Please model this.
Amino acid sequence: MSDEEAAVRIQARYKGFKVRKEIQDKKEQEQAAVRIQANFRGHKARKELAEQSDEQPFPETDDFPGYTEEEEAAIKIQANFRGHKARKELATQGRLPAQ
Model:
């Protein structure tokens, strides 16, 4: 095999690797977006139910005093993502306990 053929093969494999990685990253982003949307819909449904019954079965807590509601939401999303990332890393290392 000539040097040129070898270079072409290396480039082709790298391009394939890069495309597969992009597809996987996009899939993970879409799954994260779906999870965020589902969490929000659940929150919204519970809030509407509480407003209809004039009771609050899930009392609001001030988890992060001094932050706005939007900042608190961002903190929770970031924490969920960091947990997801850590569990994924442990799984790839084979150190995640069986569920």
Remarks:
- Residues 29 and 80 are 13 Å apart (CA to CA).
- The chain has a mean pLDDT of 86.
- The helical segments are 3-53, 69-93.
